[in-house]
Amino acid sequence: MAERAYVALGSNLGDRAAHLDRARVALTLLPSTRLIAASSVEETAPLGAMAQAPYLNQMVALDTSLAPESLLAALHAIERALGRVRGVRWGARTIDLDVVRYGSRELRTPSLTLPHPGIASREFWRRELAELALALGEAA
Questions:
Q1: Is the pTM of this model over 0.90?
Q2: Do 101 and 130 touch, CB atoms closer than 8 A?
């Protein structure tokens, strides 16, 4: 049975808009997954203390039958395919894909916490989630 998952997309290296576009296309190709809505794209300041370029960010809503950990693994595979090299935490990246919410699930594993703890500190995520909720006729 499919559940609603929210995935945050971000990029601050190279052609940021093209990286977001390619990530959205890759998300549509995931098995047992359908991209049902996408928020507006917005530019934000980078998080953390490292000097780097601003990010383009967007949130998408997916209906997926992939388990949360399987979805995360698929997101990491998309990141690698789009040239992401994991190095310094909070460093610049071609693409960053985060599972922000997965249904109403609460989960804490070594690799995944749901809902994502960053929601509280990332106003742009809250705006994007609210935009998607409005578009999908859901409570924010």
A1: yes
A2: no
